[in-house]
Task: inverse folding
């Protein structure tokens, strides 16, 4: 493979993207900042001296994505159509997971923007928390996936779980019970990777209609990434029996969404 | 094709991560019976080429509970449609390498035609209904295997 940022003489140069076709491009990057459990607690309680840490870091990440071309010498300036920065506080491991998604329709990829967003969001978290913790460590900043462009899609290999959720062979998994009437939703295989979630519970009162179509609508309204559930190829099972959009849902049902099967 | 609704189906299905032996199913299907005239088995193996030329391995994911239920249901459908004496299905999940057996279907009957057809039927239904998903690992990276239209056509024959 050739490095396109080098010219015939091996010198750095900006790639001419004028002749490239405009395609929809998307990149997702992630990283994390490890910190003392007490710092993490202060952060999740909103008790740090500088105030709302995550909101500030989110804005910092978004701003950084937009200004990537000012920081990275040979990057083009891009009109991003969407930047999102998300955080997940992981008390068990003692860190904050940071992920960023950048999207545009254009001639060049957006992975540098996503990586920059994660990096600057992590740096901002450090800045916001450093008064109480100097041992923090930023690590594992990486590209998770990119879509669009002439080199095709990329997705980082992860160790896929053999089975999904809490279920053991031969029995219907119950998962966590909800205190109020709800359905428990599972996403399997490729679908789990696409929505970035394996299990969730949603209250029955959130559904406009108490059927699969109503569940899909409620989830899509919650987060656009669930719109993939309305894809014709997405299959659904209620309590481990195949079901269609009009199938009724009742309290404590287990609803699984998955792609077409490919065993054998 | 004689219907077989009255008798209790001698059907067993297993899903496991451990490898199974090439002899799998014979002993438990035969026991000491002398009325079995034919045994047909199908064994599926991991190929080193599929969607990309150099597959280095694959990971099989499934939906515990629904998988066993679906396989049993398929075997019982076969039991009703053909005159069978035993059906055994085993399917592996987890990490597999090229050359590894993935699935074994064994069908025993008095006459060969029932066993051939039922085995074919079970595999067609297994491939299109049982909740397994393959993720192939290749030198170009990992990807989820796409469903094949021909599998759907095959299953629609029955």
Result:
């Amino acid at each position: 493979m050739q490095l396109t940022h080098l010219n015939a003489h091996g010198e750095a140069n900006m790639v001419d993207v004028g002749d490239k076709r405009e395609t929809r491009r998307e990149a997702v990057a992630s990283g994390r900042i490890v910190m003392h459990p007490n710092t993490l607690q202060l952060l999740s309680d909103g008790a740090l001296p500088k105030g709302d840490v995550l909101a500030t870091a989110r804005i910092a990440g978004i701003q950084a994505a937009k200004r990537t071309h000012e920081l990275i010498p040979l990057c083009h300036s891009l009109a991003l159509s969407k930047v999102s920065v998300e955080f997940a506080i992981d008390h068990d491991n003692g860190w904050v997971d940071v992920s960023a998604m950048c999207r545009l329709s254009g001639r060049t990829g957006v992975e540098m923007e996503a990586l920059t967003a994660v990096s600057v969001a992590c740096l901002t978290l450090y800045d916001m928390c450093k008064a109480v913790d100097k041992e923090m460590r930023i690590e594992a900043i990486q590209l998770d996936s990119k879509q669009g462009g002439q080199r095709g899609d990329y997705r980082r290999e992860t160790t896929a779980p053999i089975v999904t959720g809490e279920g053991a062979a031969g029995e219907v998994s119950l998962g966590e019970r909800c205190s109020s009437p709800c359905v428990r939703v599972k996403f399997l295989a490729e679908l789990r990777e696409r929505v970035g979630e394996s299990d969730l519970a949603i209250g029955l009162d959130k559904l406009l209609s108490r059927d699969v179509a109503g569940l899909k609508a409620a989830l899509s309204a919650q987060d656009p990434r669930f719109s993939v559930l309305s894809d014709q190829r997405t299959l659904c099972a209620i309590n481990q029996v195949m079901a269609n959009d009009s199938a009724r849902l009742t309290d404590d049902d287990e609803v699984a969404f998955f792609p077409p099967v490919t065993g054998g | 094709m004689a219907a077989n609704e009255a008798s209790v189906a001698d059907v067993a299905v297993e899903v496991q991560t451990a490898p199974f032996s090439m002899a799998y199913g014979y002993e438990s299907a035969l026991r000491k019976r002398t009325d079995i005239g034919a045994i047909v088995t199908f064994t599926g193996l991991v190929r080193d080429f599929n969607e990309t030329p150099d597959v280095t391995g694959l990971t099989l994911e499934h939906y515990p509970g629904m998988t066993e239920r679906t396989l049993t249901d398929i075997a019982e459908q076969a039991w009703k449609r053909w005159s069978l004496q035993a059906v055994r299905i085993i399917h592996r999940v987890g990490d597999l390498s090229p050359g590894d057996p993935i699935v074994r279907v064994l069908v025993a009957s008095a006459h060969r035609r029932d066993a051939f057809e039922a085995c074919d039927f079970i595999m067609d239904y297994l491939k299109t209904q049982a909740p397994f998903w393959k993720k192939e690992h290749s030198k170009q990276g990992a990807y989820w295997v796409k469903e094949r239209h021909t599998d759907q056509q095959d299953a629609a024959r029955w």
Remarks:
- Confidence is low (pLDDT under 50) at residues 159-174 of chain A.
